[in-house]
Design a protein that fits this description.
By secondary structure, the chain is mainly α. Helix content is about 80%, strand content about 0%.
């Protein structure tokens, strides 16, 4: 199970790697805007990649959220594809094994987990909706132009 999941993960990561490697930063910035990724996150990941190199790709594969971005700086830095493939496969294999193992262990407790989810889901959804609404309000508020009051002298 983990082998096939890791292969699928590597294939998906390879698409982002080759897009970044062949298209460069202009393509990455264009795609980032399209999928609503802040270019500052890519810049930060790129700086970390230059600092840590191959190890960051390996460790980044087992870090949620970061695992989706790590292929981009690897491609931009023109990391050799065989090295990228090897460390991505190892990291993805570890990640998939952990997820499948957690599913196996928690699978026997699904009735209990389901009961807890049914009980807490309305609160989780309300909290998530509130957080999203606040985020949306805050980003719209801070990006809207500030208007100054203009005083007109009446003569």
């Amino acid at each position: 199970g983990s082998l096939f999941a890791a292969i699928g993960s590597v294939l998906g990561a390879s698409i982002a790697y080759w897009a970044a490697r062949l298209g460069g930063r202009p393509l990455v910035d264009k795609l980032a805007r399209w999928v609503r990724i802040d270019p500052a996150h890519i810049t930060r990941a790129e700086k970390q990649f230059h600092r840590w190199g191959t190890g960051l790709v390996l460790v980044g594969r087992v870090m949620p959220m970061f695992r989706t971005l790590i292929s981009i700086p690897a491609g931009l830095a023109r990391m050799p594809f065989t090295t990228f493939f090897a460390v991505t496969f190892i990291g993805a294999y570890v990640w998939c094994t952990l997820l499948i193992g957690a599913g196996y262990v928690l699978g026997n407790e699904w009735a209990l987990i389901s009961a807890y989810l049914k009980q807490s889901l309305p609160f989780l959804l309300a909290g998530g909706f509130t957080a999203f609404a606040l985020y949306f309000w805050y980003t719209r508020r801070s990006s809207s132009p500030k208007y100054l009051r203009v005083q007109v002298d009446e003569e």
